[in-house]
Amino acid sequence: MIREQAFYKTELEPTSFWSKITGQKPEKNAVIEINNLLSEKPILEVQPEDIQPILDKYGLNLYRDFHDGSLRELYKTYLRYCFDDNHLDHGEIVRLKHLKRLLGLSDKAVEIANHQVCQEVYERELEVALEDQRLDQKEISFLRHLQTSLQLPQELIDTIHQNKAQSLILHFIKGAVAHEQLSPEEEKELKALLENLNVESSLNISTQAELAKYRLFWQIENGEIPAIYVPVKLKPEEQCYFLTDTAWHKEKGGKKPEANLRNLKVKLIKGGYWKAPEAKEMVLTPSSWNSVAQGKVYITNERIILRNRNQEDSILLENIRDYYNYSNGVHLSMSKGKNLFLELKDNREIFAMILGRVLKEL
């Protein structure tokens, strides 16, 4: 009879200091010795009287001890070996029943083991089928046949497909938006991927929100920015592109830099000018900053407008020497007038991107 190569000999674990004092022998070593016994000869040649000396050595009972499921893991090891070809033949079924009796496993324990391993087998084959990120008709037929052979319920199969598809989709999204923008071409690829996976795959709300943000980022960077209506008097050729809430602060004192737009222009050409250093926050100390007001900030193709009920200030885009992003807002370095910090609790990234876009087009 050909010896099964499901089990391989393993070294026993060293006895701990406490075990030496109390005279206890680790239960894990009993399982290792049973494993080693199964590695020495075919399953059907191992008999209960071969295992009993191991149990006596460690003072264990096959049915009363081993509550950690370790004996069930031995059964699963052999079951995985049998399922290497995705099929159980008559001889393997006979040996599995014999192993169940040797290890003193209950019907419930075997049912759990069978379910877990069958699920592993199906997931393994599904991963192979999805290597090209699609399921063709031949692969779908094979998986359906495998599902029937493994006796897996449809509800579980649907969950497995959904999880695998979601994982692939999220992996694609991570690669596609590594530059934190989602182009129409990338969105088209994502749509094709969803169709190719042959599943009802719905992205969770947070993922959809991220995609919407990156889609908007691409539009701001590459497309036409739509003008919006605002209750502010604009010049004849002036268009407003964005508004949000802000609190604005003016920097006290300090030597003003020479007016030079070269550094900003280089930054705008390189891109990524809208990103804030991770976790970097502008600290607005009273000794360095005057808090001016709270209200709305508008970006037009000519200026930044700061407005509340009592006042309205305008900052010409041509007077912005540079700007710097922080996690709590945007710092404007001015060639004329005091430097400003616009505190933004929401929409900071979109504000910075649109500002960069209009500055680039000056």
Q: What is the overall silhouette? A: elongated
Helix coverage percent of residues?
A: 40-55%
Name the poorly predicted regions: none
**How many discrete structural domains?**
3
**From N to C, what is the helix and strand string?**
HHHHHHHHHHEHEEEEEEH
> What structural class is derived from the secondary structure elements?
alpha+beta
The CATH architecture designation of the largest domain is: Roll
**What percentage of amino acids are in beta strands?**
5-15%
Helix run count: 12
**Strands in their spatial order, largest beta sheet:** 4-3-2-1-7-6-5
What attributes does this structure have?
single chain, 362 residues, alpha+beta, PH-domain like, seven-stranded antiparallel beta sheet, 7 strands, 14% strand
Fold and architecture overview:
This protein has 362 residues and is of the alpha+beta class. The protein folds into three domains: 17-130, no CATH class; 131-222, no CATH class; 240-360, Pleckstrin-homology domain (PH domain)/Phosphotyrosine-binding domain (PTB) (PH-domain like, Roll). The chain has helices spanning 17-22, 27-40, 48-58, 70-82, 90-102, 107-129, 137-150, 154-176, 184-196, 205-222, 262-270, 348-360; strands spanning 240-251, 289-300, 303-307, 312-316, 320-326, 329-334, 340-343. A seven-stranded antiparallel β-sheet has the order 4-3-2-1-7-6-5. Strand 6 (329-334) and strand 7 form a beta hairpin. The N and C termini lie far apart (84 Å).
